[in-house]
Amino acid sequence: MTEQHEAPGGVSGRALQKDIPQATVARLATYLRVLAMLADDGVLIVSSEELAVAAGVNSAKLRKDLSFLGPNGVRGVGYDVAKLRTRIEDVLGLSGGHRVVLVGAGNLGRALVGYGGFRRRGFSVVGLFDADPEVVGLSVAGLTVRDVADLAAGVAELEPTIAVIAVPDDAAQDVCDQLVAAGLQSILSFSACGLIAPPAVEVRRVDLAVEMQMLSFERTRNAEPEPLPEVAHVGSGRIARRVPTPHSPAGHPALTHSTTSHSATEPSSKGSVVAP
Question: Which of these, 59, 64, 63, 55, lies nearest to 21 by C-alpha position?
């Protein structure tokens, strides 16, 4: 049986938050997701190595990240899944849950409202707003779409802690301004444009196109290089492909120029040789 300790000196999760690097916070969220899955599977104890592999990090980094939370496990035994999960939730400010309002009931907004994973992780969508008269009044995942003109009154009534913006780019700043005026200090935006907000307001932007571009970059960088064509130097210094012809004896291929000699392209980034 493991022994799980609280933070040194009874320090609360809120007090520890100021000392945790942003990169570690992102990984803590990943650890929390893994711990939730382990709990669902009935796992009571997990080693640092097992948790690190499941989270996609090395065990040394995981132990360093968890050290910001205070002592959490027993050497040679592991971590108590339930207690470590509770500790991370406390540090991430999830213990009391969050009420969320979403502005934009288009395809993306409806998909977000219908995603059950938010509630399982402590986020309850309590309000949905839109400016389209044809959408206002419709029921989406149990919520009635409200007119965005009533956003300020809706925020006062619903008392959300987080707002999500899923509107077209040209309307995003105006919606952000209304949310800030209504008292929201935590905003998640799916708009491709950057939003301007007071320093006291935390705005995080999720640009799906940028994320896909990053995936494209990683895919290209990790791709295996294409094999170089077999080449030989010609006396003039020009490069020609070595290809067999019916007139060449076996084992003595002839030198022939490519048929695209007058439309050569730029060499690729992988260093392939282009026929003149």
Answer: 64
